[in-house]
Write a structure and sequence with these properties.
By secondary structure, the protein is mainly alpha-helical. The protein has 14 helices and four strands.
Length: about 375
């Protein structure tokens, strides 16, 4: 029996040529450096905000009395400046590195539009959350419990509304027009008791040549989304990918992930409770009380420090979910060859890291390609012995 909550030993050399492994490393290495630089810049930015008392000084320009005005000033100023800091790395990634490797199809106009949309969306989502959190902080000492409940509810609401309100802001979605493929995928979903709203094709090619698919939504908003780049693959490959996505739904992974998020975010807010009542840190930030929204940078530091640590558990759970979805796809399609073609093709076309380090592995949301292929091999061997 395959144990999906454990790492499956796998040798990349068994599944990939040395040149393929080297090519993926060559592509990934600069991205790793870019992420490290971005992390360092953002850490320096947060430190500067706190130790120069920038947040309270900026808030004082707008209001010394109304905490709501101060909150708006701090959130908007922090979001705008923080967004601008990330732009140079994004420009290099999109127009230099990704173009060099033949992936990026982004235009300057499209890039600017995405940045502006992301900025506005970030403000629309963040302001209500911060407003609610600081209302609780000013109202009760149990603010961290109410804040956690609000954050968790908001996360679930976003998962429900994402395919309806958020995704269409950035991409165009059209119904799948390939009738034979649509029939095949619908029959695959129906056979598992899944009633989907639609099978949509996303215009991913306006930004990238990478291909993928995903499942999103709850209840009547459930839909399968295919990158338009993926339609060049065979119907069997696409069915294998969609079978994987149906597996996530059938195994209730979204519900499990939300419950996991409830636990991890609760621990996060416990940590934030101590962080925001740490008198020395408040003094360093130039804030006399956590009731002042100028303490928001401290909250963000807490998120920045705690989330990666708590995220290790989420990553481990996600890898287990991916293994389960892979097994489900193999079971419902009964097509080992298509599974191998899918995993090998996606990983080599998209230049996924084929031999990640241990540290990179524990942060991955998906098992490495060789491990997924090894899982398929174990599935096949088990079928042969039945």
């Amino acid at each position: 029996m395959i144990k999906t909550y454990r790492r499956i030993p796998a040798d990349p050399a068994e599944w990939f040529e040395p040149a393929e492994v080297a090519k993926a490393k060559e592509y990934q290495r600069p991205l790793t450096v870019a992420r490290a630089i971005s992390l360092a810049i953002n850490a320096a930015f947060l430190a500067a905000i706190i130790f120069t008392h920038a947040a309270p000084r900026f808030a004082d320009v707008f209001s010394k009395s109304s905490w709501i005005v101060r909150l708006f000033a701090v959130v908007i100023g922090f979001t705008v400046v923080g967004g601008l800091i990330d732009v140079p790395i994004s420009v290099w990634t999109t127009f230099s590195h990704e173009k060099k490797w033949g992936f990026s199809t982004e235009t300057p106009g499209g890039f600017v539009a995405d940045q502006l949309k992301g900025l506005v969306l970030g403000l629309v989502l963040q302001i209500p959350l911060f407003l609610g959190t600081w209302a609780f902080i000013r109202w009760t000492k149990l603010w961290w419990i109410y804040g956690w409940a609000t954050f968790f509810f908001f996360t679930g609401l976003l998962a429900f509304l994402y395919p309806i309100l958020i995704a269409p802001i950035f991409n165009k979605f059209t119904p799948l027009t390939d009738e034979s493929l649509g029939t095949k995928l619908t029959a695959l979903a129906n056979a598992q008791g899944m009633r989907i709203k639609s099978i949509e094709v996303m215009d991913a090619s306006k930004r990238t040549r990478k291909d993928n698919a995903y499942f999103s939504g709850f209840g009547k908003t459930k839909q399968i989304v295919l990158f338009d780049n993926l339609l060049s693959q065979s119907h069997d490959v696409i069915a294998s990918i969609v079978g994987h996505e149906i597996g996530h739904w059938k195994r209730r992974h979204l519900v499990t992930a939300l419950l996991s998020a409830a636990v991890t975010t609760f621990l996060l807010f416990v940590a934030l409770r101590f962080l925001l009542t740490w008198t020395t840190l408040l003094h360093w930030a130039g804030v006399s009380s956590i009731k002042d929204p100028a303490a928001i940078p401290i909250l963000i530091v807490g998120f920045a420090v705690c989330f990666p640590v708590l995220g290790l558990f989420s990553s481990w759970l996600s890898r287990a979910h991916e293994r389960q979805a892979d097994l489900f796809a193999l079971d419902v399609t009964d097509d080992y060859d298509a599974f191998v073609e899918t995993e090998h093709g996606l990983s080599t076309r998209n230049l996924i890291d084929l031999a990640p380090s241990w540290w990179r592995y524990v942060r991955l949301s998906h098992p490495p390609p060789a491990e997924r292929l090894e899982l398929g091999k174990l599935w096949k061997a088990g079928r042969a012995t039945v």
